[in-house]
User: Fold N(4)-(Beta-N-acetylglucosaminyl)-L-asparaginase from Adhaeribacter radiodurans.
Amino acid sequence: MSFLGRRKFIKASSLGMSLLAFDRSAFASFLPTSQPVPSAPIVISTWDFGIPANQAAWKILSNGGRALDAVEAGARIPEADLNNHSVGRAGYPDRDGYVTLDACIMDEQGNCGAVAAMENIDHPISVARLVMEKTPHVLLVGAGATQFAIENGFKKTKLLTPESEKAWREWLKEAKYKPTINVENKLYRPDKLPGNKFNHDTIGMLALDAKGNMSGACTTSGMAFKLHGRVGDSPIIGAGLYIDNEVGGATSTGVGEEVIRNVGSFLVVELMRQGYTPEAACKAAVQRIINKKPDKVKDLQVGFLALNKKGEYGAYAIQQGFSFAVCTAQKQDLLVQSKSSF
Ligand code: SD4
Assistant:
């Protein structure tokens, strides 16, 4: 990450995992001018729920395990977290009260699997992996995805939790469907920005293992109160996630329609192939979205996270407050973007 780029991120936690906000300018003043290259293994994840997800992935990576196993194990943490209403089991439902989950996974050989709009199964990332490993297909959707999961030993589970149902019933009073931007890191609580609600976030994870192989995972319940049948970017290979073991990987969060329109994660990886640093590649992809929607950008959030083969990482989002968690043998950090990109 370049010095300029680093200035836009606040280091919010370090080795002790305490969430400690540093003053922006003070932080900038003691940062080195270039990021020391963390040697593999490394795992990075979107948002602050990436911290516990990284820890689960790290158990595998630090024992010489495969990046694919690490990202699956990591992604399962927020999927199972009943306090997390944007990923997995406790995800907010769609407009009609159905919780539908999207996920994809990609390995170092370019193999990939995905499920979209899948109901009643609580670990979509593991189903996505099975699609990759046990079928000749890449993407299963809806009832077919649920059927495939059950045939492979997954239990049918009621996903709608009482809290999610309550939030949905509250939403039904007005039933206005308007995606809102993500500005939810603890340092940037939405209460400081009237009108914001926590209604969508995805975990995207990228890991490089000790053998130098990269894999990625992406899992979400998508936009809260979306139209029934809506699928976002998260299960779409090239949009929500892309891995090229020769170059690196990228993943995205935010308004999925914009990411799909710009084939965002593939774009970030291709920019890295051309020599961009991970952060510069994320920034260029964000800029492309901004350039196409200059009038709408204030209400839009899209963020990208990238890791290259050297273990260098970076991120960039349209709005401030985007955060990502980094875990290596040397450190566990949460970096928070402190400025908007427009
Ligand atoms: C989607 N990209 O379904 C996901 C949601 C998300 O932060 O990441 N929100 O469009």
User: Anything to note?
Assistant: Residues 182, 200-202, 220, 222-223, 232-234, 253-256 surround N-hydroxy-L-asparagine (CB under 6 Å). Residues 1-7, 12-34, 185-198 have pLDDT under 50 and may be disordered.
